[in-house]
Amino acid sequence: MENNNLPLLESVEPDYINEMTARREPIEQAKNMAGATATTIIAFGALAGAAFGQDKKLPGKIVDVLNFALTLEFLEDEFYRTALGSSGLIPAETRDVFGQISKHETAHVNLLRSVLGSKAVAKPNFDFTAGGAFADVFRNYQTFLAVSQAFEDTGVRAYKGQAGNLKSNDMILTTALRIHSVEARHAAMVRHIRGETPWIVGDSRGTLPAPTQPVYNGDGNTKQGTVNVATLPGLSDKIASQAFDEPLSKDEVLAIAGLFIRK
Amino acid sequence: MEKELNTDNKVGKAENDGGKLSSRREFLKWSSAAALTAFAFGSLNPETLSAKTAFLGLPIDDDKAGVVDVGKGDIGILNFVYANEQLEAAFYTQVIATPYAGMTSEDRAILTDIRDNEVAHREFFRAQLGKKAIPNLQVNFTSINFNSRQSVLQTAQMFEDNGTAALNGGGQLLKNPLFLLIAGKLVSVEARHAAILRDLQRPMSAYFSGDDITDPATGLDPARTPAQALAVIKPFVVTPVSIARLPQPKA
Fold first, then answer.
1. For residue A122, what is the DSSP state?
2. What is the chain A residue with the closest CA to B164?
3. Residues of A in contact with B223 (CB under 8 A)
4. What is the spatial distance between Cα A244 and Cα A247, in angstroms, rounded to a whole number?
5. Angle between the A141-162 and A92-116 helix axes, to the nearest 10 degrees?
6. Nearest chain B residue to A17, by CA
7. Residue B7 burial (CB count, 10 A)
8. Is residue B125 classed exposed, middle or buried when 0-12, 13-18 and 19+ CB atoms within 10 A define those classes?
């Protein structure tokens, strides 16, 4: 299964789907047998570790991407757990929504840590006020929502930007894609709560404060492949931009997330 | 006009593309453009169209026996996604053309945006795949009650959850990183659609990413193989679609 010395285009083996399917069965069995959530995650991690060759060597490029993802998941996980624990912050109306999001972020942290094993980075110390820019983030619901939307839209763009770097390992790529679409569900829901469209229009941050603009820069792109989608029949810049989400590079994401990490 | 995909894939051209199909596709293209124009100017009353012919006003295919083979390799996967996008675009076009009873302005705004997004996806694939694109598929929506909010939203959610899972599973089948990136750009928009369509049914609950779709233990959305995803949409697609040559599990 290890083929990391091959160029990307040649790295997909014909039998990988069988590999994937063969390994999914024991995972399903483990899930059925496991009584507790934690047990399930450990079982998944152990299987994933075996599948990825963690016992031997996880390729450095993949370790880097997964630790980058883990850092973002640490950020989100602590953010929502703190918010849910801040009395009077999240109203009853949306507690189920944020409880669900928080549950997923915790699961993502556990999943990534179990895959990375001893290679997992430590959780950073976070400053969710971003040096005071969002000073009342855990006292003011609107500030909390704004930061939440920025985190979720960033998370979607971050995973998207790393997919190509995971191509050498089908199971890890697929796992990352399966996290990516969950982050998109979160993003859509938080945007909806804030009265925004569930999808990003152009590169607009909408009603978010100016410091969040880097989250949206470049999302107004309308060219996909060799096609400018905005020029196709019946379409427009608005539609062509909102119909496709754009990636952010690792550096762009770290510039955003770095605002919330204590040095 | 049509630009060829620049791909390392060895598939030369769509194997199902004889001269007959080419000319037929030209006709279908022409007729879909004409139908769109007719819709735009209101000269076609959607209510007089049967659900079966409402898809872009296309005539029933006289070549029913013809199986549409999506092809193999990356082009095959892209054509399979294109088939999904055709179905979704046709569905939402019908939803907006014949709105259900009591459609609120919020519902209409969301469903109109989703229609626009799916049309953009469909038109992108049509243009990008060019001569390698599969022809327009015939759809059958007779099992959907377009006058019922519940029927429309349930169907929409099913399409979006399935489209998301299909792209999650399809990513690893793509060889070209450019195509993987494009799939990534699509899948998060499909997931956004799924989330809001779920919320319209159970507002402000956990359902937007509910435990029925997102595994609560791992926080992962499903990934479906092309065969699994095709099985979900098959009841709505009249044209026989073959995915036999796609990379997929053998048993």
1. P
2. A181
3. 174, 177-178
4. 10
5. 30
6. B249
7. 17
8. buried
Residue in A99, A167, A245 nearest the CB of B177: A167
ipTM of the complex: 0.83
Residues of A within 8 A of B249 (CB-CB) are: 17-18, 21
- Cβ atoms of B116 and B73 within 8 Å: the answer is no
With CB atoms and an 8 Å threshold, state whether B171 touches A174: yes
Is the pLDDT confidence value at B140 over 70? yes
Q: Do B124 and A21 touch (CB under 8 A)?
A: no
Question: How far is B49 from B177, CA to CA, in rounded Å?
Answer: 42
Q: Does residue B83 surpass a pLDDT of 60?
A: yes
| Cβ neighbours around A261 below 10 Å, total | 15
Are A100 and B210 a contacting pair at CB < 8 A? yes
Question: CB B185 to CB A184 under 8 A?
Answer: no
- Quick one: tokens of A162? 């790393």
How confident is the model over B1-35, as pLDDT tens digits?
Answer: 344 444 333 333 333 333 333 344 443 443 444 44
**Other beta carbons within 10 Å of A6:** 12
Q: CA nearest A201 in B: which residue?
A: B113
> Which site among A8, A72, A182 would you substitute to test the B interface, given the most B Cβ atoms closer than 10 Å to its Cβ?
A182
- pLDDT tens for chain A, 263 residues: list them: 333 332 322 233 333 333 333 444 443 443 333 333 333 444 454 455 455 545 457 899 999 999 999 999 999 999 999 999 999 999 999 999 999 999 999 999 999 999 999 999 999 999 999 999 999 999 999 999 999 999 999 999 999 999 999 999 999 999 999 999 999 999 999 999 999 999 999 999 999 999 999 999 999 999 999 999 999 999 999 999 999 999 999 999 999 999 999 98
Supply the pTM of this predicted model: 0.80
* Distance, CA of A16 to CA of B172 (rounded, Å): 9
Residues in chain B within 8 Å Cβ distance of A235 = 116, 119-120, 123
Which positions in chain B touch A108 (Cβ < 8 Å)? 219
**Nearest CB to A198 within list B33, B177, B196:** B196
Cβ burial, residue B111 (10 Å; 0-12/13-18/19+): buried
Q: Can you tell me whether residue A126 is helix, strand or coil?
A: strand
Buried b or exposed e, range A146-181, using 16+ CB within 10 angstroms: bbbbbbbbbbbbbbbbbbbbbbbbbbbbbbbbbbbb
